[in-house]
Amino acid sequence: MENREILDFYKQTSQFTDLGYYKDFAINLPDDIEELCLLQRMQIIHPVAYKDKDIRSKSNCFWGDMTKVPITRLDYEEDYFPTAQSMIAELLRKNPNYDINREAKDKIHITCRGQAILLASILKAKGVPARARGGFAPYIKYDGINYDHWLTEYYDDKENVWKLVDADEHCPDHEMGFDLNNIPYDKFLFGANAYLGLRNNKIKEESILYASDPVTLGMKAAIRGLFYDFHSLMNNEIIFLHVPKYIQDKNFELSEKEYKELDELANLMLVPNITFNKLKKI
Question: pTM of the entire structure?
């Protein structure tokens, strides 16, 4: 049985996951995690898909009629809708029917971070302990590279266990070989694991990728994942531009003393439910 203090903490919301007047809307969404994820997935076009000219020219694909999406739309709308509340507000503004038949022109262009916090916010509204998690997913492209990715983690009260779920990958043509609603923990590389793997020379630099512009590889990418996950564990799901100022100012080139400080943080994050109070103190 999980510590009640921890479960109560992850029922709380942040400025990113609080749904305000949309809380009742979320409560009335399906309780079944598979149904909830599929429904959410059909509200969103991933920016990588929208940027693909071949996909944009299709009138009949997973995302619907892409030819009807105005070319004036941004590829990435994360800056427009950084919170779960803003995502739901925009979806209902475009079309009040929140169902699996939403047309492509009425979907929002949001990455895995948005998917993770939106699902977490809906689960929290339903009284389910939930948190976004940041790290890297080797299962996205199967090419030996761990791509930066966000998931949702929630507490299954019936089974008394935390479960990882990936709303972003709920696509009909994605066969992972495991349940996306209960992802094995060894299938996802959390920020701390990626960081410590590089520090201990157990992971190759070129295998850790953060899809920035330009692409960031290795330790710089891992440090991003470390802090995204740390803040998510603290119910503060920072956006992609948010990293500690001293790290940004140094362009991620840190002293050994600073690396050792991050080593301590990362080791605590390996078992966040055990080190919960120490992480909160940090």
Answer: 0.95
